[in-house]
Amino acid sequence: MFELTKEQEMLRAMVREFADTELAPKALELDRKGDFPFEIAKKMAALGMLGISTSKELGGSGMGHLAGTIAIEELARVYPSVAFFMEVSTGPLYAITNFGSVEQKKKYAPLILKGEKIMCFAATEPSGGSELANLGTEAVPTGEGYIINGRKVYITGGGIADYCVLLAKTGDRASIFLIEQGTPGFTVGRRQEQIGLKSVDVSELAFNDCKIPKENIIGKEGAGFPIAMTTFTVARPAIGAIGLGIARGAFEIALKYAKERILYGKPIARLQAIQLLLADMDTEIDAARWLVYAPGAALDKGATPRDIVKQSSRAKTVGAEVGFSVTRKAIEILGGNGVSPEYHLGRLLNDAVELIPATGTQQIMKIIQAGEILK
User: What is the pLDDT of residue 65?
Assistant: First the structure.
């Protein structure tokens, strides 16, 4: 088991208070409107939440990856959409701070950490899905830079991002580019409907003879796949943390209800059938917590992203599954009230479903895990 530091426990308490005061009273209204909460994002940035795992040299707090996981978990306990925004910010920021040039780090990292700008990572294509190697988006080099043509789908934050970190084919390999919103030839398509995570923008992006300067490449030309896979490995456990947070939120709702709901002259928490459900939920949450925490803890102790490939995919799988499983059991405990909006469980269940395909399906995650086991 992990013994959290005093600093990590203080961070948890701070984020929990933020979630309870800033998110809980607004959760139903935010979900109903479905707009991205820019003001909340700015408050998160002001509290340093967007730079928890970023080094102090680049403007972050340098608290580490496990601390970032804890913060995402606490946000997801109340309003998963905001936690998902924090997860989405992790990927492009990691790509720039670890593979970008000195100029790119100095220019873009502070803007993201301060909440002044938003970034998205665009990899998925209509025909590609989990097969990133099947790229249709192409960047053709010119004397001064690149001309990009192609289309991306299911891009989280695509419609609200100021900058897009893009994976595109360059010859027979791929490269990573940074493109600013408003660049001629770069357009945002329709926002894609989804059953949960209502405040998360998921949009299509199109590139039609989009010209960018050569200094907008991140890393070396042809190094796109290693950068993308490394970035996904580091960011993926955050999806597990969101699932863990959803499970904890659902469990807390169900436990409170079970203690207060009177049936047959006593709280339903005294009924053995309810106790069995609560015991299962508690066990699932504790079992998942250590698997979700493991990748971040390993990185903080000096492991490389390559070292945590198995733990990363497992964290995502287990976290997503526990979010759905515990929330479903919570609905059983509340009975008819379990699907009433005022108890939030229907909202949390829909959010949990959204995690199943996020950053790769459960089956893809297990294939990655099996590949590491069989090496």
Answer: 96
Rounded distance between C-alpha atoms, residue 331 and residue 344, angstroms: 10
With beta carbons less than 8 A apart as the criterion, state whether 352 and 197 touch.
no
pLDDT of res. 1: 56
Integer-rounded Cα Rg, in Å, for the chain is 21
Q: Are 330 and 281 in contact (CB under 8 A)?
A: yes
Single out the residue in 222, 252, 271 at which a domain terminates. Answer: 222
Q: Measured in whole angstroms, how far is the alpha carbon of residue 224 from the centre of its chain? A: 21
Q: How many domains, the chain? A: 3
Residues 362 and 254 in one domain: yes
CB 98 within 8 A of CB 233: no
Please state, in angstroms and as integers, the Cα–Cα distance from residue 337 to each residue in 27, 67, 93, 156, 342, following that order: 18, 35, 41, 32, 8
Amino acid at 353: V
Show the CA angle centred on residue 138, arms to residues 361 and 100, nearest 5°: 75
Packed helices 65-76 and 237-260: angle between N→C axes, nearest 10 degrees? 40
Q: What residues are paired with 167 via a beta bridge?
A: 176
How large is the average pLDDT for residues 284-290? 96
Q: Cα separation of 181 and 262, whole Å?
A: 56
List C-alpha distances in Å: 59 to 7, 62, 69, 106. 18, 9, 19, 9
The answer to whether position 204 is within a domain reads yes
Same domain for 69 and 170, yes or no, is: no
What is the CB neighbour count within 10 angstroms for residue 256? 12
Question: Which strand (E) or helix (H) includes residue 150?
Answer: strand 145-156
CB 238 within 8 A of CB 86: yes
Which range of residues forms the domain containing residue 256? 236-373
290 and 344 in a common domain:
yes
Read off the pLDDT of each residue in 204-224 and give the average, rounded to a whole number. Answer: 96
pTM: 0.96
